Amino acid sequence: MNIQENIPLAPLTTLQVGGPARYFLDAHSERDVREALSFAADRKLPLLVLGGGSNLLVADNGWPGLALRIAIPGIEFSGDGTSVLFYAGAGENWDQLVALAVSKNCAGLECLSGIPGTVGGTPVQNVGAYGQEVSQTIVRVRALEIATGKISELDNASCGFSYRASIFNSTQRGKHIVLEVAYRLKQHGLPALHYADLKKFLASGPADPTLQQVRDAVRSIRLSKAMLLAPGDEDCRSAGSFFKNPVVSQSEATRIAALAAQRAPDRALPQYPADNGQVKLAAAWLVEQAGFTKGYSRGPAGISRKHTLAIVNRGGATAADIVALKDEVQKKVFDLWGVRLQPEPVFVGFDSNL
């Protein structure tokens, strides 16, 4: 076990801000994970579990305990001609797993192409994009309970999936470490074409696009929005969409839509059906109509020039700069629309819950 000290965390995140970790370890096996937990417990150190660093905002003071990066490798798959089970170690690169599934002509993940990060983070946040969520394909999550060291095999229902959420980032936050995820994909299945942007992009192509064509289209769309990591592009120094699309009651959606009709009569408020009769609103629309256009800057932090929901590090930004812009956006949206935007990234090393 190679424990390192005072390792900068900023280079390990896509936002590229934040201070160092007092201790750091890359865990390449379940044994490494157990030994790291013992190390932290013996020294009474707080534990930070890292994956690809694509959904984190690390405080400028860094992390005072052990940062444990899960790097467990391995992909196996088996099928019966109708469906294929993919078993992937939590440290595997997510987009590479999607590419493999598509190359095997297996449907279910193609619209999740180009999302940065690792396999282990996908069930935690119930990663989703362009009409797909991993909860639609996950059949099992192998996870270690931090307090006891017990390894559990959680089925889909036990994970408590909902919009951008699971037990791992809600009721059981900080209590488990994901080790492996199993996905059931449909062999020779049709690609998911539910999202308007994706349909529009593919409109000039074949009537029945292949999984690979849909994957390529998704990656192209993400690149156009700086949501695909590209070296040298400052708009890629982000944590992806910084705010969740708010899910509200039907009556609340009606109230906001009526307000929108008065304040922005030429731009209808986008609304989408959500679970339990609720309505999902477009956070990007609310942010834009609150005056935060693409390219907006607040010192070294800003709004992406290509994607309204992405807060970016324009170069030299601190975590405090990012938080100040986040606060400004949240306050203005609430003052104008009465909607509290919830951040998507995990805030690490901050004194209070942001």
What can be said about this structure in brief?
This protein has 8 helices and 20 strands. It has helices spanning 30-42, 94-103, 121-125, 196-202, 211-224, 250-263, 283-289, 319-337, and strands spanning 4-8, 20-27, 47-50, 56-58, 63-70, 75-79, 83-89, 106-107, 128-129, 132-133, 138-145, 151-155, 176-187, 247-248, 271-273, 279-281, 297-298, 301-303, 311-313, 346-348. 25% of the residues lie in helices and 25% in strands.
Descriptive account of the structure:
The chain is α+β, with helices and mostly antiparallel strands and 354 residues long. The chain folds into three domains: 4-70, Uridine Diphospho-n-acetylenolpyruvylglucosamine Reductase, domain 2, CATH 3.30.43; 75-224, Uridine Diphospho-n-acetylenolpyruvylglucosamine Reductase, domain 3; 234-348, Uridine Diphospho-n-acetylenolpyruvylglucosamine Reductase, domain 1, CATH 3.90.78.10. It is built from eight helices and 20 strands. It has helices at residues 30-42, 94-103, 121-125, 196-202, 211-224, 250-263, 283-289, 319-337, and strands at residues 4-8, 20-27, 47-50, 56-58, 63-70, 75-79, 83-89, 106-107, 128-129, 132-133, 138-145, 151-155, 176-187, 247-248, 271-273, 279-281, 297-298, 301-303, 311-313, 346-348. The two termini are 34 Å apart. The model has no long low-confidence stretch (mean pLDDT 94).
